[in-house]
Amino acid sequence: MANVTKNRPLSPHLQVYKLIPTMLMSILHRITGGALYFGTVLVAWWLIAASTGADYFEWVNWFMGTIIGRLILFGFTWALLHHMLGGLRHLMWDVGYGFEKHFSTKLAKANIIASVILTVVVWAIAYIIRT
């Protein structure tokens, strides 16, 4: 019996691939999708604390107000906005637009830039409203 795998090409390892913007956005879209599960747990924790009582709710609010809590919330905000923009990019592809290589690359770069800018804008507005 002949070894049929000798004639088949080997898949290149990750070290062979050059990281391009569209590949990075695909990876980040999956990561942010996973991060949104964690963020949903945070929202559920906050709602459970609100229904449990004032003391526990104040403690959760205190934690979310610490530097660690704010970093977590900032990351959740970025993940939410980045994933939303990636979803809009996928919706555009679903209707048949944006498949050209150069446009797709520009859109991938715009996705990361816009998600960072929108996150900063959301947090700036929150701080303005808070004061």
From TrEMBL:
A GO cellular-component term linked to this record: membrane
Family membership: Belongs to the cytochrome b560 family.
Function: Membrane-anchoring subunit of succinate dehydrogenase (SDH).
Record keywords: Heme, Iron, Membrane, Metal-binding, Transmembrane, Transmembrane helix
Membrane-crossing segments per the record: 27-48, 60-81, 110-129
NCBIfam families from the UniProt entry: succ_dehyd_cytB
Cofactor binding notes: The heme is bound between the two transmembrane subunits.
GO MF annotation: an example: metal ion binding
One Pfam assignment: Sdh_cyt
Topology in the lipid bilayer: Multi-pass membrane protein
Species the sequence originates in: Rhizobium glycinendophyticum
Residues annotated to bind heme: 83
Cofactor needs: heme
GO terms for biological process, alphabetical: tricarboxylic acid cycle
Subunit structure: Part of an enzyme complex containing four subunits: a flavoprotein, an iron-sulfur protein, plus two membrane-anchoring proteins, SdhC and SdhD. The complex can form homotrimers.
Protein name: Succinate dehydrogenase cytochrome b556 subunit
Primary location group: membrane
Record localization: Membrane
Signal peptide location: none
